[in-house]
Amino acid sequence: MEDNFDTLMTCIVKEKPEVGLKLTKKKIPSNLESHEVLIKVNYTSVCGTDYHIYVYDDWAKKRLKLPFTAGHEFSGEVVKLGSEVTRVEIGDIVSAETHIICNTCEFCLRGDGHICENTKIIGVDTDGCFAEYVKIPAMNCFINSKDANPLHLSVQEPLGNAVHTMAHFPIEGKDVVITGCGPIGLMGVNVAKAYKAKKIIAVEVNEYRLKLAKELGADVVINPLKEDVVARVLEETGGRGADVVGEFSGNKHAIEQAFEYVKAGGGLSLLGIPSKDIEIDLAKLIVFKGLHIYGVVGRRIYETWYQVKDLVDNNMLDFDKIITHTFKLTEYQKAMDLMATGNCGKIVLIPGDE
Ligand code: NAD
Ligand code: ZN
């Protein structure tokens, strides 16, 4: 590998406090601190967060410090090492845990780094991977199997969200509901199938995504715009409700309904982020139901990643259906327009070769 990174690279930057992103050139970030590595990005997938950054919604206005390079989900090859890096090598094919954690707070020290109180996020708080190269702390690299498909490897971070959500409560042989079949919920459906759930019920308002959910393993699909979700889930589960619900919609109504149709003693894993307060009868729907509730933040570092690797290395998932579109990085606008319609699963961008 030639050690000359003195040239410019193409990248997608959030520059101004308005709708949009900008295709531009920047110097390759080859000035590494001792704990950092430089990675040549092979594939980078588009997250809902990138879309929030693109439209510059209320969350983005409050959270972001401009300008910065967007993007955080990727697979790539390590091309340069900081002076003290020993845990990865040049040539390693890596993906990134996007939460940069402090490793010193109470949560990190007790092994719960996913809820670190000092978390910074790649592509939100630091320059991200919608670029030909990205630099990240070596600690954030997850080393992939060399023979795995690099396109598939690029979606492991959101896949980790889906695995974290679906693996918290045992689902083998159980009736499982997945609410919200956006890219992550769709992966949740596929993960539930891989983990041998007995019956997988997918709830989603978008017909394109419902169809994908079916192809990815849902036995039953419910469109809340057409059916009474609570009644239908109870009917499909012998009247007692679902053993486990994975919530991936963030929709107030969908979340409130989940508390109704989850079985007594069952598990509710919440990943979706609602923008409105949730109103439920807590005594009836949580206390007297003996309900288990789990809030899902990111991925367990690195426990979830090894679960993901297992699914990837053993070909247990249908990535060809999970990834519905690929575009060149320079065509990012097409990806944003498509995300606005909701008629997509995961979209992957490919840097290089303009
Ligand atoms: P997304 O917005 O693409 O998917 C949400 C899906 O829910 C959409 O397909 C939408 O049509 C569907 N939906 C809307 N109303 C519904 C209803 N009433 N019933 C059923 N489905 C409904 O989002 P995504 O990228 O797949 O992410 C899923 C959720 O997880 C989002 O809320 C996101 O903010 C959140 N998230 C959380 C974390 C975390 O660490 N907790 C990480 C990543 C994403
Ligand atoms: Zn911490």
Percent in helix: 25-40%
Which second-level CATH architecture of the largest domain applies?
Alpha-Beta Complex
Summed up, the domain count is 2
CATH topology of the largest domain: Quinone Oxidoreductase, Chain A, domain 1
Distance between the termini: 22 Å
pLDDT < 50 stretches: none
Bound molecules: nicotinamide-adenine-dinucleotide, zinc ion
User: Tell me, what's the shape?
Assistant: globular
**What's the Cα radius of gyration?**
20 Å
- By DSSP (H or I, 4+ residues per run), the number of helices equals 13
- In CATH, the homologous superfamily of the largest domain goes by the name Medium-chain alcohol dehydrogenases, catalytic domain
Which strand-content bin applies to the residues? 25-35%
Main beta-sheet annotation:
7 strands, mixed
**Mean of residue pLDDT values:** 97
CATH class membership of the largest domain: Alpha Beta
